Amino acid sequence: MSHAYKTKNILVTMGDDFNYQDAGMWFNNLDRLIKTNRDSSASHRVNDFLDYANEASKRYKTKNVLITMGGDFTYQDAGMWYNNLDKLIKHTNLKSAKEGLGIKAFYSTPDCYLKAVRNAFPSLPTKQDDFFPYASDPTAYWTGYFTSRPTTKYFERESNAFLQMVKNLQVMLNLPKHNQFVIDELKSAMGVMQHHDAITGTEKQHVAHDYERILNNALEDVMIVPNQAYNKVLKAKGYEGPELEYKRCRLNESSCSISEQKKAFTVTIFNPLAWSVTEPIRIPVVDGSYTIKGPNAKEIQYQILDVPESVKNIPTRQSLATHELIFIVKLKPLSFQSYHVTKNEKTKRNIKTQKERKNDFYTNLNDYWTNLKTPIDIKNLEDKENRRIQDTICNENLEIKDRNLDFDVLKSSNDGVSEDILKLEQIIRDAKRNTEKEQKNLAKKLNYPSLNEEEMRMLSDEPTVVNMFEDKYIENQAMKLRLDNKLDIITLLENKKSLNFAIKLYYWSACFGDNTNTTERSSGAYIFRPNITKPIELSILHSEIKHGPLVSELRTIYEGNVTSTTRLYTDIDFIEVDFTVGPIPIDDNIGKEYIIKYITDINNNGIFYTDSNGRQMLKRKLNERPQFNLTLAEPIAGNYYPVTNKIYIEDSDNRLSVLTDRSQGGSSLNNGEIEIMLHRRLLHDDAFGVGEALNEVLNNKGLVVRGTQRILTKKSDLLERKRVLEFHYKPIILFADAENLNLSNDHRFVGLYSVPDGVHLLSIESWGDTSLLLRIENYLEKSINSTIEVNLSDLFNFIKINTFKETTLAANQWMDEYEKLNWTTDNESFNESNEFNNDDGFKVKIKAKQIRTFIIEYDYV
């Protein structure tokens, strides 16, 4: 039936029968049938066709019945099909004319169909939600592809941000026009990635590899654009050395040959957004000491942390990096700036002194004490269990890992030994005995339960013997995460508010069958169908905390080849969760679908919200659909929705939002919980066309997925929308070897003046020799003051705008030539006319959720 719904005025028509007519429904070898039995078989086929058209017309609002032809695995011989369709149309119209049926069959197009419906002036029903999740039978919910091939989905997201960057740089720096060829190559590759069997992950494995090959080649070719742009600015700042050669790095694998192998390198970071952003940067390096200088030659604070073993063990990773160099950057709107990183040389040992020390031999221990250049204070040796001390010869740090000192001071003879030395020996022996005794007592005490202060107060009248432990936290200026004695997160503290909070990992075991009927449906690339009603929790094997001046981390290792790292960065208002999943074990011959859960005490009553392709937030209700009564044979899969960028739950007091770094499937299956699927490894096909199981492997090892999610806790739509865009269009980092180069020059470029909150520059790209295409989005939610005025003449600082003209969204038609259609709905009259005819010169107004597109004529300044 035909539906229209008002989400920025879209007319939607649904076919009567899923999506296309079954090949051969009305004819097989129609030429032969007509020739052999003109009166019987041909008439029978035409009658079937007319019966179908009459029945379908009952479900349409007008007398125009849309019959679609074409579909997967059918209509592959175009010549045969068009011959048959020609004859079907001819014989149908002959029969209708002879018998006065009032039916006319003809070839049509979407435009012609739309015009015919419009001319009938129907009153159309409205639909405010979307069509997710959908199913083709009671057990076949197409919700698995929301997550299938997660690395391909991430690659597409990352490449889109790269495409926007090169389009921006081409215009901002007035680069050579021939660059458009490589930019168009990347556009084409990204277009291929939008195919419904590419971004969805529902292609065969070798096809997925081919998509990735095409996209990777395009990215390599387009590197000419940032190389030209960054070197052009560098030379304009007075640099006279050789050009830098910038490279991409696989930062999702903590891998970068330049930062790992070079003693000095440049990191150039591009911000594609129309506002300033603060972003943590993590650079793969070999352990050591470094100096980082910003674009103004000011030294930047950094922190260095080891790369987790789970990342080092990613099968595709080829890297020498053992650590990550972490620093936080503040980037201006539509800008790039460079940071110069130098690895500090180690101080070399005094070789002469080393040789002398190697031959030291004392027959009398008093000679050793006499020859010491620096006296040792024995009592200070027990200050800390891990105490850094300074070598008397060199400047390298040494670490005492075992404080149980065992000196055999008088092994050979007591001759010449002073009484002080004998006393020292006795002190050491007594200390060792006391330490061993304390350790035994401590082991006994650890058998008692450990409680914190609050729990101690609750049990103050109980006779049970307990030990009190100090609460552990990871925290920053905005929030705290309190941990229990097992290092599980139990509470989130923010602005004097406390929220019960936990992060846990699970998996769904997958159904498998021969797909001959609905009860035998397998989970596959398209279909998510678990064979259990509750997911299986993954046990924690080990946890540890890493504290530092810029970031604190809780690292957790789970069974089943899963890890998570929960981070809080200094002065940053989100929680970051980094995960690695895989290889998913299949030794039991059962496919598995891994999920992460964020568990709170928020009372959301089965209501949660997901984004509609990164823009409008849609309300979801567990086990319900807005426009019909729902009966679910698959209560898990039937409540999964696509999460392009964000999912959240809330009650009157709290909200928890999770931002994703790629498209994933998610839900809120239990009160207070957000569940997101991270990775799938299946052993059977679901019989919807892929023809092979979703089992991604390399060298017989299952795929490892690394990803990131960010958690927000404030109830602020504006803040959330900005954080969503900042995560979707993360600053792009490129690296260049800078050994033996003098890069003291100020290397940065800012292309934009300030813009009002709510403005997102969706597209900036060349449009001919002296024109550019500009798309501006107002990302605010609709409210009284949500309309924004933008002065185009005060937008960019690198061009002077001469004239501009508005086009339709696709930039294929001038807006003043666009014919707008008025529709009548069942509950109101609906007008698509442009509300903004009061633009004032270069000042244009943009309403909430609106995108306006302009072609701009300009000159460089």
UniProtKB/TrEMBL annotation:
InterPro entries: Gal_mutarotase_sf_dom, GH38_C, Glyco_hydro/deAcase_b/a-brl, Glyco_hydro_38_C, Glyco_hydro_38_cen, Glyco_hydro_38_cen_sf, Glyco_hydro_38_N, Glyco_hydro_38_N_sf. It is an enzyme of class 3 (hydrolase). Keywords: Coiled coil, Disulfide bond, Glycoprotein, Glycosidase, Hydrolase, Metal-binding, Zinc. Its cofactor is Zn(2+). GO terms for molecular function: alpha-mannosidase activity; carbohydrate binding; metal ion binding. Residues 140-215 form the Glycoside hydrolase family 38 central domain. GO terms for cellular component: lysosome. One of its GO terms (biological process) is mannose metabolic process. It comes from the Eukaryota. It catalyses: Hydrolysis of terminal, non-reducing alpha-D-mannose residues in alpha-D-mannosides. Residues 414-441 form a coiled coil. Its EC number is 3.2.1.-. SUPFAM superfamilies: Families 57/38 glycoside transferase middle domain (SSF88688), Galactose mutarotase-like (SSF74650), Glycoside hydrolase/deacetylase (SSF88713). Binds 1 zinc ion per subunit. PANTHER family: ALPHA-MANNOSIDASE, LYSOSOMAL ALPHA-MANNOSIDASE. Belongs to the glycosyl hydrolase 38 family. This is Alpha-mannosidase.
